[in-house]
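Handoff note, outgoing to incoming analyst
You'll be picking up this chain. Sequence as last confirmed:
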Amino acid sequence: MIAAGLTGFATAFALILAIGAQNAFVLRQGLAKAHVFWLCLLCAVSDALLITAGVLGFGIIVELYPLLPQIMAWGGAAFLFVYGAMRLWAAWQGNYAMQLSGQSAGLWATLATGAAFTWLNPHVYLDTLGLVGAVSTQFTDIAEKTAFGIGAVTSSFVFFFSLGYGARLLAPVMQSARAWRILDVLIGVVMWALAVKLLS
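Most recent structure output, in case you need it:
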């Protein structure tokens, strides 16, 4: 069971480690020190639900509805393009008084954006329902499969809370409007690159 749990933890952690739209948003909120706990909880719980569904074999739905990934890709790409444009527009305007004063968008607006990054991203479904679900099939024993799922879910909580609160270590660097402008340009470019990748 320990081996199964470690396999689940390592598998999910490796998949989630890549810097994507969701991670970039959590990082930005962590730097702003705004709604970090609730955003990390939202992302981790969402991952937990998807991982659980993947381990239980929910990935078969994609096989039943082959157009689903394409529809999700279009929706996700549209959202990423709009959010990327928002970040580039913010960088162009250069008004970061709110960030420098420690203010942020409201809790519900932040959670809504975080939910969109999670549930409108086709790669999240590929990773959790597809890949994690596929790896879990090597464990046929119920106890081992459960341990695998718990390990995978645990890695998601560890990752998001480490990213959200670990971002504060970079806070001393983010004390100028120029630093926030550079961050927004980088995030905007990453969002557009991910949107193009989804469409290709």
